[in-house]
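Re: your question from the hallway

Yes, I did run it. Sequences:
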Amino acid sequence: MTDPPPKIRLTTTTRLVLDLFMAVDPEEPLWGYRITEETGLGPGTIYPLLERLEKAGWITGSWETGVPEDRPRRRLYILSGTGRQEYATLRQDRRGRTPLWSWNPRRAGQ
Amino acid sequence: MIDDPNGIVAWFDPDSPEPAELSDRDRRGVIGIGIFLTFVFLSFSVYAGLDTGELGTGLAFAGLSLFAGGSVIVINLDVLTIWDRVRLSLTLNLALRIGGRARRWQAEDWQVAVETSPHPFRYGLGLVLAAVHMRLYDLGTLLLRAACWMLASNHRTWWPLGAVLAFAAINIHLSQGWGSAFYTLPTIAAFHLGIEHLRRRWNIKRKGD
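Structure:
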């Protein structure tokens, strides 16, 4: 039995990583170490997230090609069309949602 | 096997898209060779007056034989001392071991990341943490699937829960009397509400609905 794709929740960490994917050139892939460097998050956070995003089909992973024989290959990731679309939808939903408990200083004085 | 002039050695087939797995027979062979070489190196180290180099190599073989569950990675960066190379190799292999067989294919990527990082030990420990997170996520997924399976049927949900609640009510009755046992009734209502909430939240359709 194949596992169903994991549900992606828009946590701060997920948004940081996806924003990085959105910011880079679509043709320019990212890899685990570079993402940890760019976001300032540790590998303990990044690699499990990359695994979930790849399983959900939000990012596409491939092995680096044309690598010199003297070093191992990197796993390169690019944001897929599905990922781009789903992320935009989730962000839109998030903006439209009003929090259950919120305090607005402007309204407080009224 | 890739032999890197910079000092990184990994047991992989470079043409294969995913690192090759060792068979059980090969793994037993690696463990046997590891134990034999450990014994030889340690004996030699003791005979030669506990030289750090030989002892380190012996310990490296010991570590590798212990972690020979599949692909074995040896970080052998020239800039590091032999003890640091052993520590780093063991950390990376520990991360791979914790991650499980299904994630062995990430070995190559993790190795190059550790090698690139200016803080390889910290990065290696981060990878161990990543492997633990992945395993916990796997466990969580498994538990969630089991919970969904139970909640999808009233029989599967209420038979075990009913048994537990009946046992609790009888236990309270025996120790404190019927007055206290009566107070288990709100618990049943709370369980009912909780179960209905979970079914709605996880979008579970009951059998026969």
